[in-house]
Amino acid sequence: MKLISVNSQLILLLAFTLHTACNYKSEASLMTGNWKYTTVEKNQESLFTIGDNDVMILQADSLFEYHISSVNKHMYGEWSYTDHTLHLKYADPDTIRHFKVDILSDHILKMHEGEVVFNFTRVNTN
Fold first, then answer.
1. φ, ψ at 117 (rounded to 5°)
2. Which pTM was predicted?
3. 81-122 pLDDT, tens per residue?
4. CB–CB of 60/32 below 8 Å?
5. In the list 40, 51, 94, 111, which could disulfide-bond 99, CB 3.0-4.6 Å?
6. Residue 5 main-chain phi, psi, to 5 deg
7. Distance, CA of 53 to CA of 117 (rounded, Å)
């Protein structure tokens, strides 16, 4: 009887492990997508107004672009993600910035660069 119980538990554990492995998304793949700015803050105070069309797009081919209307910013270049840090290599000016990711989920992205905190929600493009 005991052997059957152990086998049943092993089968359940194996099924759970396979289910989890099949649904796993790497952090880098979670980063990919269209993100809408919700706030950009320093010391919990908004640095500028966020518009309805202010977005950051991180493409699967490692290209990025972002738009922030109120500060007249439209930047683009290449992105990478390592050690919970988003690296943006701008095409013009030739600059690399590093954003430490604090929260990353299917729907929320929060990251900071120094004392400036950037909050986003995912934009569904389906």
1. -110, 130
2. 0.78
3. 999 999 999 999 899 999 999 999 999 999 999 999 999 999
4. yes
5. 111
6. -65, -40
7. 19
